[in-house]
Amino acid sequence: MPDTDAIARGIGRIPSGCAILTARHGGRRTGMLASWVQQVAFEPPMITVSVKRGRPIGELIDASGQFVVNVLGENPAAMFKHFGAGFAPTEDAFAGVEAKDVPGGVEIADQVARLSARVHKKVEAGDHDLYIAEVTEAAAPELLPPYVHIRKNGLSY
């Protein structure tokens, strides 16, 4: 019998950043707080992002084949508060946030890097969908440190 408490603690120790994942398609656009973003290849430059199945942003990523990752800096509290609860498909996820449309999705002003990506493959991974994508455009004006996140429990957010 596996020790689920030890598994939860161990997985929780894997550091991650936090980002605002955005997508747009057919006049709709949305964003969500994402902590499972990782580089997976140098050539071509590729990343992965994990989205809980059923989240509205998944439909937009599937329809457009693109997304944007806005990497958050060391003080993400305002973005956590704004994006943390999620949005209904008809809600404006960017109300009150400085944002602009860019290739693949939406860039928010409060970020240390922005990565526009084209989906290469979607893989079912438990209760999430894993998108493997090629970075097609980016903006990272200064070398600013990203936020680093450690969870107490690796089996829940």
What does this structure look like?
This protein is of the alpha+beta class and 157 residues long. It has a single domain, classed as Pnp Oxidase, Chain A (Roll), CATH 2.30.110. The chain is 16% helix and 41% strand. It is built from 3 helices and 9 strands. It has helices spanning 4-12, 56-64, 77-83, and strands spanning 19-25, 28-34, 37-41, 46-52, 66-71, 99-102, 105-108, 113-125, 128-139. The strands form 2 sheets. Strands 2-1-5-8-9-4-3 form a 7-stranded antiparallel sheet, with helices on both faces. A hairpin with a 4-residue loop joins strand 3 and strand 4. The longest helix is centred in the N-terminal third of the chain and has 9 residues, at 4-12. It is globular, with a radius of gyration of 15 Å. The relative contact order is 0.26. The mean pLDDT is 95.
Describe this protein with a few key phrases.
157 residues; alpha+beta; Pnp Oxidase, Chain A; 3 helices; 16% helix
Could you state the oligomeric state of the chains shown? single chain
Q: What fraction of the residues are assigned to beta strands by DSSP? A: 35-45%
Q: Overall 3D geometry? A: globular
Instruction: Quote the average pLDDT.
Output: 95
In summary, what is this structure?
The protein is of the alpha+beta class and 157 residues long. It has helices at 4-12, 56-64, 77-83, and strands at 19-25, 28-34, 37-41, 46-52, 66-71, 99-102, 105-108, 113-125, 128-139. It has one domain (16-139): Electron Transport, Fmn-binding Protein, Chain A (Pnp Oxidase, Chain A), CATH 2.30.110.10.
